[in-house]
Design goal:
By secondary structure, the protein is α+β, with helices and mostly antiparallel strands. The chain is built from 23 helices and 20 strands. Helix 8 runs parallel beside helix 10 and helix 13 packs parallel to helix 16. It is elongated, with a radius of gyration of 48 Å.
C-alpha cells in the first residue's frame, strides 16, 4: 500500500477547479445536429425524436474529484425516454458511475436510477423517486469520487454513499480515469414499467437542457494514468471528504422516504429488460386470458415493493385503454382487493401520498361510466376491509378517502356539472356509504366523508344552484332516515352548521360595510347560504312522513336557524350577488333579498306622500283595537239588520263578515278585509244566540202549526260555554214559540238549557244555507253535550252500525238444561189464567 501511494504521489497530473464552458470542455458525439451548444457555450440541449437521440462527452478524463451538472429534464409525458449523465472508462473491464433518469407518464414522478460498475461488473443499483418536479427548473446533480467513497448528491443532499470495501473482496473504481458522458435516447423496451409503456411520439421532440458544469477534479497526464492529491491541494478538500453526521442524517431521510429499490435488500431486480412472458407487461385493448383482475390483484398485493410499483403502472395503463363494457364489476372488485393491500404496504408518507394521488386520479382520467364503477368498487372495498385496519394505518386510509372524494368532484367539474352525472355520483355516495345497506363495521368511512366533504370541495365552489340542490340532497336524506345519531350530528355540525355560521358572518360583514375577502370560506359558503332557500328544504324534510321521529327536532332546529337568517337578510336590505359557473360561462345569479311585507309597503307609500327623508324612520301606527264588548255589540246590530231585511224564506245573503269571507274563498280569490273572523268561544256563543232569536221570530210570524210542518235540518255542533241566561219569554214553550205576540227584546237568552236536541235540530221555516253555518272541525260540544253514540265534529246523518253478536256455542249439558219442560204447577196456573 505504501509503494502504491508513493507511486501515485510521484506521478504527474493536472488539477482543474473552475466552471466549464461547453465549447471548451465537451464534444457532441452523435445525433446529427440534435445536440446543440447555445448562449456562447453556457447551455447545451439534447433532443430526441422518432429518428434518433443525441449525446455528448467531455474532452478530459478525470480520476477522482467533485463533478457538478445542472440539468432540466424532459417535461410532460416522457415515458420510454432515458436521460443519462455518467462517468465511464473504455474497454470490456470498464468502470462506470451512473445517474439515469427514467421518463414517466404525465403527473408521475421521475425515477432516479444510480449504479456503479467495477471491472465491467455492475448490478449495484439503487432507485429513488425525486421529491420535486425536475422538469420545471434546473437542479444540480453531483458525483463526489475519491479513493474511499463514491457519493451521489441531488441539490447538495446526499442520496447514496458507495464505500470502498476492498478489504471484504468488493472491487472499487479507483484505477481507471473516466470521461463524462450524457445522452438522451429511446428505451421504451425497459425504461417505463419494464417496457409496458411505450414512447408517445406525438409529444416529440423531447428536450433536455444542461448548464453550469463545474469540475473540481484530477486530470491525469497521458504518461501517468493515476493521480492523487492531499486535502490541502484540492480547493474543496474532496480527496478525504466523507459524510458528517448531518449528511448521514439527510441521506437516511431520503432513503427512508424516497428510495424504491436497493440491490442490497431487494433480491428481485425490477428494472432490467423484462421477459415478454410476463402477462403484466402485455398491454391489450380487451381483457383476455393473459391479463385478468386476479392476476393484477396478485401482483398488486405483492410483498416486493418493486413488483407492486410495476403492477400499479401496468394497471393504470391497462384500465385507461379499456372500454366500459370490457371490465366487469367482478374484475374491479378483485383489482381493488389488490390495490387495498398495495396501499396497505405503503408505509412511508411521501410514498403513501403519491400512491393515493395516482389511484384517485384515475377517477378523473377514465370515461365517466367506468370512472363511476371504479369509484363504487373503491367504496365497497374500503367498507369491507375497514374493520381490519389497525389504528396506525387509519390516517393513510383517511387520506385515500379524501383523495377519491376530491377527484370525483374534479371529474364532475370537468364534465360541466352535468345533472345526470352529479346525481349518479351522489347516489353512489349515498347507497354505498352514507346509507349503505351492508352489514360491514365501517361507520368510520361515512363519518370521515361527512367531515371531509366541505374541506375537499371548498375550492371547487361555487356550484350551480341546481347542482347544489343535487349535492346536498343525499345529506338531507341521511338526516331524515338515518338512525345513526353520530352520523346525523356530524353532518349537522360539519356541513349545515358551517353553512349557517358563514352565512351569518357574511351578512354581518356586509351590513357593517366591510370588505369581503374573495375566495374565502365566508365568501363562498356565505353566498350559497344567503342565495338558497335552505329553510324550506329542512322544513319539508322535517314534515315528511318517512322522517324518523328522533331526527325531526334536528331538522326543525336547522329550519329555524336558516329561517331566522333569511328574515335578517330581508330586514337588512342587503343585496347578495353570487356568481356560478355554467359549463364554463359566467352566469350572474342575484338573490333578491329585499322582500317587503304588506305593512312595510304601506309605510313606504305613506312616506312618498310626506317627507321623503322620513320614509325609513316613520312607523305606521296600528289602529287601536276596540274592546270585545264593542265588537260583539256591532256584530249583534249587523246580524239583526240582516235578519230584519230578509224574506220569510230566511235565506241569508252574503253580507255578513263570515259570508263575505266564504264567498271570496269559493270564488278562488281571498278578498282583503280589515277585520278577520276569529272563531273563538265568544263569537260562537253569539252566533248561537242569534240563531235562537231567528227561530223565535219564525215561531211568532208563522205560528206553531206552520213550524210543525217544516222539515228538521241538522246543523253543526257549536262549542259554547255553559251559561245560564234569562229566557226570552217566561212562557216560552218547548218548540220555541211564545204565547204573547210581543217583539223580541234586545237581550239574547236561551229558552232551555243546553241540550243535544236543541243543538242538533234547527226548525225555522226554511233552513240556512250550509256554507253560512260551517265551523272549524275542532269546534265540538263540550262536557255533557257529547251524548253517547254521537261522534264529535260536524254532524252527519249516518246509519248506526249494528254490532253483530257472535253466536255462542253452548255445551250439551246446558242445552239439556234449557230444554227441560216447565213444572206441573206452572202449567196449571197458566191454564187457569187462560180460562178466566
Amino acid at each position: 500500500m505504501k509503494g502504491l501511494l508513493f507511486a501515485i504521489l510521484t506521478c504527474s497530473f493536472w488539477i482543474i477547479a473552475q466552471a466549464g464552458n461547453f465549447y471548451q470542455d465537451f464534444d457532441t458525439t452523435w445525433g446529427d445536429g440534435r445536440a446543440k451548444i447555445l448562449d456562447n457555450g453556457q447551455r447545451l440541449t439534447l433532443t430526441l425524436d422518432k429518428t434518433s437521440g443525441s449525446g455528448f462527452q467531455s474532452k478530459n478524463e478525470y480520476l477522482f474529484g467533485k463533478l457538478d451538472m445542472q440539468i432540466k429534464l424532459v417535461p410532460g409525458n416522457s415515458a420510454g425516454t432515458v436521460t443519462a449523465y455518467y462517468l465511464s472508462s473504455q474497454g470490456p473491464t470498464h468502470d462506470e458511475i451512473d445517474f439515469e433518469f427514467l421518463g414517466n407518464l404525465s403527473g408521475d414522478p421521475y425515477t432516479l436510477h444510480t449504479n456503479v460498475f467495477t471491472q465491467g461488473k455492475g448490478n449495484r443499483e439503487m432507485q429513488f423517486k425525486l421529491w420535486f418536479d425536475p422538469t420545471k427548473e434546473f437542479h444540480t446533480y453531483s458525483i463526489l469520487w475519491n479513493p474511499r467513497h463514491v457519493i451521489f448528491m441531488v441539490d447538495g443532499t446526499p442520496i447514496r454513499d458507495f464505500k470502498n470495501l476492498e478489504s471484504r473482496g468488493i472491487a472499487f473504481p479507483k484505477n481507471q480515469p473516466m470521461k463524462i458522458y450524457s445522452s438522451l435516447w429511446n428505451a421504451d423496451d425497459w425504461a417505463t414499467i419494464g417496457g409496458a409503456i411505450k414512447t408517445d411520439w406525438s409529444n416529440a421532440p423531447f428536450l433536455a437542457s444542461y448548464k453550469n458544469f463545474n469540475a473540481d477534479a484530477c486530470v491525469p497526464a497521458s504518461n501517468a494514468p493515476n493521480c492523487a492529491l492531499n486535502a490541502a491541494t484540492s480547493k474543496n478538500g474532496w480527496l478525504n471528504q466523507e459524510l458528517d453526521s448531518t449528511g448521514q442524517e439527510r441521506m437516511k431521510w431520503v432513503q427512508q422516504n424516497y428510495m424504491i429499490y436497493n440491490y442490497c435488500t431487494d433480491l428481485k431486480r425490477g428494472f432490467s429488460r423484462p421477459s415478454r412472458k410476463d402477462p403484466l407487461l402485455v398491454v391489450a385493448a380487451p381483457m383476455d386470458a393473459l391479463l385478468t383482475g386476479a392476476i393484477i390483484a396478485k401482483r398488486l398485493a405483492s410483498c416486493n415493493r418493486v413488483a407492486r410499483e410495476r403492477a400499479v403502472r401496468a394497471f393504470s395503463s391497462w384500465i385507461c385503454r379499456q372500454p366500459n363494457d370490457a371490465v366487469t364489476d367482478a374484475d374491479l372488485i378483485k383489482v381493488w382487493k389488490g390495490l387495498f393491500y398495495c396501499f396497505w404496504h405503503a408505509d412511508k408518507l411521501p410514498v403513501q401520498a403519491e400512491l393515493a394521488g395516482r389511484l384517485a386520479a384515475l377517477v378523473e382520467t377514465l370515461p365517466p361510466p367506468l370512472a363511476f364503477r371504479y369509484f363504487e368498487a373503491f367504496l365497497v372495498t374500503i367498507r369491507r376491509e375497514w374493520g381490519g385496519i389497525d389504528f396506525l394505518r387509519l390516517d393513510k386510509f383517511y387520506l385515500l378517502i379524501r383523495k377519491f372524494l376530491r377527484h370525483a368532484f374534479l371529474l364532475l367539474r370537468k364534465k360541466g356539472w352535468d345533472p345526470d352525472l352529479v346525481s349518479r355520483m351522489m347516489g353512489i355516495l349515498l347507497e354505498k356509504s352514507l346509507l349503505a345497506a351492508d352489514n360491514y363495521l365501517a361507520n368510520g368511512v361515512k363519518y370521515h366523508l361527512s367531515e371531509a366533504f366541505l374541506d375537499e370541495t371548498n375550492d371547487l365552489l361555487p356550484f350551480l344552484v341546481d347542482t347544489l340542490d343535487l349535492v346536498l340532497k343525499p345529506f338531507i336524506l341521511v338526516l331524515e332516515k338515518s338512525a345513526d345519531r353520530i352520523l346525523v350530528n356530524k353532518i349537522k355540525i360539519n356541513m349545515f352548521d358551517r353553512f349557517l355560521e358563514n352565512g351569518r358572518k357574511l351578512l354581518n360583514l356586509m351590513k357593517a360595510g366591510s370588505q369581503v375577502e374573495l375566495n374565502t370560506e365566508e365568501e363562498k359558503l356565505g353566498k350559497i347560504t344567503l342565495s338558497l332557500a335552505l329553510s324550506k328544504m329542512f322544513f319539508d324534510a322535517a314534515s315528511a312522513l318517512e322522517t324518523l321521529q328522533a331526527n325531526r327536532k334536528i331538522l326543525f332546529n336547522l329550519h329555524e336557524g336558516f329561517l331566522k337568517l333569511e328574515n335578517d337578510l330581508e330586514k337588512s336590505g342587503v343585496h347578495i350577488s353570487a356568481e356560478f359557473l355554467d359549463n364554463g360561462c359566467s352566469q350572474d345569479v342575484s338573490s333578491t333579498v329585499v322582500i317587503e311585507s304588506t305593512e312595510q309597503a304601506e309605510i313606504k307609500n305613506e312616506g312618498i306622500e310626506g317627507n321623503p327623508d322620513d320614509k325609513q324612520s316613520k312607523k305606521r301606527k296600528k289602529p287601536k283595537a276596540s274592546s270585545d264588548a264593542d265588537q260583539r255589540k256591532k256584530k249583534k246590530t249587523d246580524k239583526m239588520k240582516s235578519l230584519d231585511s230578509v224574506s220569510e224564506s230566511y235565506v241569508v245573503e252574503p253580507s255578513s263578515e263570515v259570508d263575505v269571507v266564504n264567498a271570496g274563498i269559493q270564488n278562488g280569490d281571498m278578498m282583503e278585509t280589515h277585520e278577520t273572523i276569529d272563531f273563538n268561544e265568544s263569537v260562537i256563543s253569539n252566533l248561537q244566540r242569534q240563531f235562537e232569536k231567528a227561530a223565535a221570530e219564525a215561531d211568532i210570524l208563522n205560528g206553531s202549526d206552520q213550524m210543525s210542518a217544516s222539515p228538521t235540518t241538522p246543523i253543526a255542533k257549536i262549542a259554547v260555554k255553559k251559561r245560564r241566561t234569562k229566557a226570552i219569554s217566561a212562557g216560552a214553550n218547548e218548540n220555541g214559540s211564545s204565547p204573547n205576540s210581543g217583539s223580541i227584546t234586545g237581550k239574547s237568552g236561551k229558552k232551555v238549557r243546553f241540550s243535544m236536541k236543541s243543538n242538533l235540530v234547527w226548525k225555522p221555516n226554511s233552513p240556512l244555507p250550509p256554507q253560512s253555518l260551517r265551523l272549524p272541525p275542532s269546534v265540538t260540544p263540550k262536557g255533557s253535550a257529547l251524548k253517547k253514540g254521537v261522534p264529535p265534529g260536524p254532524i252527519k246523518e249516518t246509519s248506526s252500525k249494528v254490532k253483530k253478536m257472535k253466536a255462542k256455542t253452548s255445551s250439551v249439558k246446558k242445552i239439556r238444561i234449557a230444554v227441560k219442560s216447565p213444572s206441573a204447577i206452572k202449567r196449571l196456573r197458566k191454564l187457569q189464567s187462560r180460562s178466566v
